Amino acid sequence: MRTLLIILSTFLEIQLYFTGSRAEQQQSLRVSNELVSLNSSEDESEDVVEGPIREVLAQSGSTANLPCKITEPGAGTITWMKRKNRRLLTVGTSTHSVDKRFVVMHSSTDWLLQIRAVTLQDEGIYECQVTSHPVQRNFVLLKVTEAYSIIPGAPDLHVKQGSSLRLECQLKAAAESPLYVFWYRQGHMINYDEELGVKVELTKNGSILMVNKTKPSHGGNYTCSPSNAKSAYVMVHVIEEEEKPAAMHGGDRRNLSPAILASNFLVSLLAAVSWRIPSFTSLYPT
């Protein structure tokens, strides 16, 4: 009997031990889940902006200017940071970031952040903060576009020899006009060639290439390369007019030599005679 009681008490102690361990594990797991949930909510709230956001559109490779206007000069230290990773970019007029593309342009109450050679990775919300009481915050959303160009009629364009040729280089998704557009024919730049009848004109959204009277030498690969957009190309084929015999053009027979006239007359006469004379088989049937 005593042995049975000892066994029962030992069994109860083991059961209580495992029950307590399971409860501690559940409690630990619940606390861990609460911490994860809290951290997640904090991470999600990092990009929550309270206040108006000004949008700035810039082209990839160009310079972006992010404005920041404060109400009182000397109210406090002005800092610029990127909201996504809380990266401090500038403090006052000094660049804090190791990336020297970020520069502050200061003028009275304006603290403009200039980002040179913009990339697609620079997109996001930027915050200009003034350490005054209360703290002033200005938010700017930078959007970066990647411009490209097209040539209507590409990839192949056919023109008749002697007709005019007009090629237009059009910029798409561009935030600013190009500084220049270079035209190449078969890899050779033709913008500054003094070729008769060839003219290049820079427009607000691209460039136009004109050729007054096309020749076979005007055929080939044409490429337009804007200063701020991807290049485009078109293959131009100049169709040459084939030279036809004078008879096919309805030439004047009086210009033909006597020998040619006599030969033509003899051929016509033989054809007429052979048509009228019956064949030998009809005269002497077998």
From TrEMBL:
UniProt keyword list: Signal
Family matches, as PROSITE patterns: IG_LIKE
Top-level lineage group: Eukaryota
CDD domains cross-referenced by the UniProt entry: Ig (cd00096)
Gene Ontology BP terms: synapse organization
The Ig-like domain, residue ranges: 46-140, 152-235
Gene: LOC100644332
Record organism: Bombus terrestris (Buff-tailed bumblebee)
SUPFAM superfamilies linked to this entry: Immunoglobulin
Name listed for the protein in its UniProt record: Zwei Ig domain protein zig-8
